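We modelled the chain as a single entity of 119 amino acids. Its sequence is:
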Amino acid sequence: MKFNEFITFLGSFDLKETSNFYQNILGLTLYKDQKTCLIFHINMQSKIGFCEHIPVINDEKSPIITLVTDDVDEIYTKLINKGLKIAENPKLNEKFNIYHFFFKDPNGYTIEIQRFLED
């Protein structure tokens, strides 16, 4: 089997607020506006969508939307400078050999920004 792209769809309380967050805070671009769903580019093969008709279901850290980058500290600083409240600074997680931090989106979903460390 061959798949060309990946899209995850999640529920949204407010598409306008969700759109503002993902475009203006995280800097993602809008791929498709389906009126009741918005789909954003993460990269050319990966996308994330939010829909009004899907219930928002989350727990303390579930689900986790993980965005992988080499520039964890730079992204952390940019998000702080945009006024985002982030509880903890980026840190090393030896168990998973990653460097990362977490914050919440307007729907209460946990977002993780992380870098895989070399073995």
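As a brief sanity check on the tokenised model: The chain has a mean pLDDT of 95. The first helix runs from residue 15 to 25.
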